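To assess whether ligand presence alters the predicted conformation, the chain was also submitted together with magnesium ion. Input:
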Amino acid sequence: MQAKIATLTLNPALDKSTEVDRLVAEQKLRCGPLRFDAGGGGINVSKAIQRLGGQQVAVFPAGGHNGKLLCELLEKEGVKTESVSVLGETRENLSVLESSSHAQYRFTLPGLQITENQADECLDIIKKLTPDYLVASGSLPPGLPETYYEKVAAFAKNIGARFVLDTSGEALKAAADEGLFLLKPNLAELSVLAGVEKLEMNEVDDAALKIIKEGMCEVVVVSLGPQGALLVTKSGFEHIPAPMVKKQSTVGAGDSMVAGMVWALNEGKSFREMAQIGVACGTAATMNQGTELFHTEEVWRLLAWIQQYGDRYRLRDFGT
Ligand SMILES: Nc1ncnc2c1ncn2[C@@H]1O[C@H](COP(=O)(O)OP(=O)(O)OP(=O)(O)O)[C@@H](O)[C@H]1O
Ligand SMILES: [Mg+2]
């Protein structure tokens, strides 16, 4: 099998969600029906690319009944999968919506331990897929060194794939030091990359340019939550505002944004349109509850708004 886009999820999860009227300690709480979703950064990116009509394969380690269910759920959505079978159970996450307050409680359990050999088996699969783009998203599971994404960055260069990474902390820093194609940090992640404690809005463009000049990546799209994103390349920067929408849940906004951008790149769009589509996908994801990603008709509607009115809503805080 060949794929234009491969995603890598080293710490996948079976996401379970339900509702309860009120969360009260010590009482038996009657919950609504349980919903199952395949989760984990790269898997979300795959699901979103699939929705946009892109060709992708999701690669991940899978263990036990949960691992099997994860594959079945993805295949039902038409997401192609290639899993490495591992001992133990793929982790489960639980999210509970308190309907009286609309607050969402998200319980994230420790990931299933995997060995470096098992992670390397995922890379062997990816090599055979000969992808043009490799997207890794999410945390590293227990058992892998914090430098594992650095190895993936070197691997991507080796197989001639453009590497896109969305993770945080030391794992992100180590991979960026190796160099990759596209980074989508939020402000906290950009601070780590730039080696500073905190960034003000008017420092974002310089910080992003600095990491490009240091050879960490070719393109940076700094995501700014409700304020959209800042696209930075070595030749300049541009703010892409996010349309105002009725926010339901921001879960999956970052992954949806990454998916939109990689889909756009693979379609041959410009960096500008790539970032606009990314913001449209990220914002569209906030319009749905829980782990649900976006509806494509919302993406195209928001994209039209960004392309028509974006200029009027640009932040002037950059480059001052
Ligand atoms: N409240 C919001 N209103 C409109 N758009 C939003 C909002 N929050 C997020 N977005 C959209 O989603 C994109 C990514 O969001 P954000 O900057 O919060 O990423 P993140 O911190 O990586 O999120 P995640 O928690 O999913 O990893 C933004 O660039 C924007 O387009
Ligand atoms: Mg994120």
